[in-house]
Structures are given as C-alpha cells and as structure tokens.
Amino acid sequence: MNQPTKEEITQKINMVLDGSLTRESVCEWAVDYIRNDERICIDDLEAWHYLVEISNIDELIGSNNYLFHEDDIQSIVKKYI
Predict the structure, then answer these.
(1) C-alpha torsion 11→22→78→60, nearest 10
(2) With CB atoms 3.0 to 4.6 Å apart as the test, which of 11, 26, 41, 59 could cross-link to 67 if both were Cys?
C-alpha cells in the first residue's frame, strides 16, 4: 500500500475547508494510514509528516469548538505545498 501524496492530502484538506468533507472523515482517513504504517511504503517523508500533522484537525476543545481553526489548517497546507 502506498502512502498518500502531498497533493492527495491537500485535496482532502481543501474539501474540509470548502465543506464537502468533515474534519472527522479526513482524520479517520489519515489515521488509517498511520495505524497501518508497517504495511505502507513510505517514500516521501515530508508527505508522511503532513499526513500525521493533519490527523488531528478534528480535536475539540469545547462544544463544537475545534483546536485548529481554518487559518491554522491553511498554515499547515502552506507549510507542505
């Protein structure tokens, strides 16, 4: 199994930002790769770090209040593209 590319990760994040995917679904997608890392060919370490970094964008710090705001998520994307 191949790891997601930076482009694939960015596409998922953009879908969160435009409201077509939930944060939770993207986090589940990312965590599925992370939990199965022994079966994944990690050939782009920067993309792997990007995946790990977005794997918790669904963290809540209160009722319907996310730890990472949209501008935080956009900063993560800018860091890796």
Answers:
(1) -160
(2) 59
pLDDT digits (tens, 9 = 90+) for 18-69: 999 999 999 999 999 999 988 888 899 999 999 999 999 999 999 889 999 9
Rg (CA), the chain: 12
Q: Cα–Cα distance between 73 and 17 in angstroms, integer? A: 8
Q: What is d(CA 68, CA 62) in angstroms, rounded to the nearest whole number?
A: 12
User: Residue 51: which residues within 8 A CB-CB, separation 6 or more?
Assistant: 3, 4, 9, 30, 33, 34
Query: Strand runs (DSSP E) across 1-81, as ranges?
Result: 60-62, 65-66
Is 63 in contact with 69 (CB distance < 8 Å)? no
